Amino acid sequence: CLIWMYADQINSENLTETVTLQVASPTTSMNVELQEPVSGQFQVTFTGPREQLERLKRDMGSGRFKPVYSILPEEANGDLVVKDCVDVFNSLIRNHYNAVSVIETKPAQIKVFVDHMIMVKMPVQVYTGNTKTTPPVVIPDKVDVLISKTFNEEQLSDGDRMIVVNIENHLLNKPEDQAIDEEFPLPQVILGS
């Protein structure tokens, strides 16, 4: 056993590359954003057999290997998650390059801001502009909306306390006295903007 381990160490080489790391959330109950380093760029020193290091380098150059670290809900106890980058990068390469490991990163840590989300119900309103219509039927008349736990519902202006579907332009080309039986998508809204 010692002979093989010694032989592996003799055949190991080091490779230092600039690697861009992204962070993600596997759930809609939280948003994550890399705080440090803002660029997401690291100088990463890998060690392992030459063939696997060359494959890793090719895969990074071609975009086949794009490291994305998922912040799990159990890691996100507060608003800031601090992780050791050697551990992060080793967890990301382990399944693809089993004989390669990370021995150093610069910077040594990542800091990730975690914004926990909560679900609130908001009414849906149809905006028809200056076109006279009978009151539109909205189904459902309330929808679930994810908002930041830190951006509390009381901070919303009256206009942001509902989801507005604007159909004014759609009505301009319709003849009068015609019933419209159509579905309209809900708009993507950034609350508080």
What does this structure look like?
By secondary structure, the protein is an alpha+beta fold. The protein has four helices and ten strands, in the order αββββαββαββββα. The protein has helices spanning 2-11, 50-62, 85-93, 168-172; strands spanning 12-20, 22-24, 30-36, 41-49, 68-70, 80-84, 101-106, 109-127, 142-148, 163-166. The strands form three sheets. Strands 3, 6, 8, 9 and 10 form a five-stranded mixed sheet that branches. The protein is elongated and about 80 Å long. Mean pLDDT is 83; it is low at 1-9.
User: From N to C, what is the helix and strand string?
Assistant: HEEEEHEEHEEEEH
Structural class: alpha+beta
* Parts with pLDDT < 50 across at least 5 consecutive residues: 1-9
**CA-CA gap between termini:** 63 Å
Instruction: Please compute the radius of gyration using only Cα atoms.
Output: 26 Å
**Quaternary structure classification:** single chain
Beta-strand percent range = 35-45%
How many helical stretches? 4
Apparent shape: elongated
Major beta sheet, specifics? Answer: 5 strands, mixed
Number of strands: 10
Question: Helix amount, in percent?
Answer: 10-25%
The residue-averaged pLDDT reads: 83
Write the layout of secondary structure elements.
Layout: H1 2-11, E1 12-20, E2 22-24, E3 30-36, E4 41-49, H2 50-62, E5 68-70, E6 80-84, H3 85-93, E7 101-106, E8 109-127, E9 142-148, E10 163-166, H4 168-172
Parallel strand pairs: 2-5, 8-10
Antiparallel strand pairs: 1-4, 3-8, 4-7, 6-8, 8-9
Main traits of this protein?
193 residues; alpha+beta; 5-stranded mixed sheet; 3-stranded antiparallel sheet; 10 strands; 19% helix; disordered N terminus
